[in-house]
Amino acid sequence: NAGVTQTPKFRVLKTGQSMTLLCAQDMNHEYMYWYRQDPGMGLRLIHYSVGEGTTAKGEVPDGYNVSRLKKQNFLLGLESAAPSQTSVYFCASSWGDPRADTQYFGPGTRLTVL
Amino acid sequence: KNQVEQSPQSLIILEGKNCTLQCNYTVSPFSNLRWYKQDTGRGPVSLTIMTFSENTKSNGRYTATLDADTKQSSLHITASQLSDSASYICVVSAKDSSYKLIFGSGTRLLVRP
Questions:
Q1: What is the pLDDT along chain B (113 residues), one digit of tens a residue?
Q2: Under an 8 A CB cutoff, do B31 and A40 touch?
Q3: Helix (H, G, I), strand (E, B) or coil at A7
């Protein structure tokens, strides 16, 4: 099993450009999440999904959109990138409620917005 | 406000030595507490999880303790190895919010030969 994979691993964007980050998991998990990690701060939840076809806002959703058309995939979109979105993005998945079930994280995508 | 504070921010120790990392939280009502290890350039990996009723849990050379009364946890690493060099993140979940995990900013540990 590959676990949780993320594509791409690195990306540089110019302000105003758009892009989509892809997360895939092969563990048949129901829950999937997108986090961002910034220096000196804890991971912050952007959006999450509790099952195929569902999405919900997390702590810092502004400027991002997500879709979960297939159970194994969770896409994070930036419609008009801003320098404040420079960060490392992590996708995670869990079988169920993260209070009870362990989250498994992907390797991250390092995004720089110039 | 729910918060998780970790100390120290960074730590350097010699290989073979022990060390203890601290986590203080103000999350309420408390559900559970996890410690994650994050290697440079990788995603976090779960080490331990503890609920309100547990006060010690071990995973090999890693031992986590929890004092729910004082809202403190510690992660003790015994006989450190070079591969222990990583960031260690304390994560607390609250009973009243299914998705919201509160992440500490981590302690960066460097083990030197």
A1: 788 999 999 999 999 999 999 999 998 888 899 999 999 999 999 999 998 888 999 999 999 999 989 999 999 999 999 999 999 999 999 887 656 789 999 999 999 99
A2: no
A3: strand
B100 by Cβ neighbours in 10 Å (0-12 / 13-18 / 19+) ranks as: middle
How do A73-78 and A19-25 pair as beta strands? antiparallel
Of A44, A58, A107, the CB nearest to B99: A58
To probe the interface with A, which of B99, B103, B108 has the most A CB atoms within 10 Å? B99
Chain A touched by B103 (CB under 8 Å): yes
H, E, C per residue of A81-113? CCHHHCEEEEEEEECCCCCCCCCEECCCEEEEE
- DSSP H/E element including B24: strand B19-25
Q: List the single residue in B with minimal CA-CA distance to A106.
A: B43
First to last CA, chain A: 36
Closest CA to A104 of A59, A72, A67: A72
For chain A, residues with pLDDT lower than 50 are: none
B interface test, pick of A23, A31, A37, A97 with most B CB neighbours within 10 Å: A37
The whole-angstrom separation of Cα A77 and Cα A113 is 14
Q: Which residues of B touch A100 (CB under 8 A)?
A: 32
